[in-house]
Design a protein that fits this description.
The structure is a single chain. This protein has three helices and no strands. By secondary structure, it is an all-alpha fold. The chain folds into two domains: 38 residues, no CATH class; 46 residues. The longest helix is centred in the C-terminal third of the chain and has 46 residues. It starts with 6 loop residues before the first helix and ends with a helix.
Amino acid sequence: MTFPFDTLKFKKKLSGVGIPVGHAEGMTEAVRDSFENLATKTDLHLLEAKLLFSQGELKNDLIKWMVGLSFIQVGLCLSVVLAFHAG
């Protein structure tokens, strides 16, 4: 997304307050270049959606691991109990 920025008007304002034209041009370019990497609201909403999706996937994976480990734990406990009970 491009940000509306009037470089000529900005440069004239800087020159009008006594900043040399060369400095004003450099500052204008720097400000214009900095606008190229701004995140928009759309960018932030897209990032939020991706993070929420990833969070949901991680939650599902964690639940699967916990259920699996619970079954293994129950199996180990039963094995120990049956081993002592049989002996």
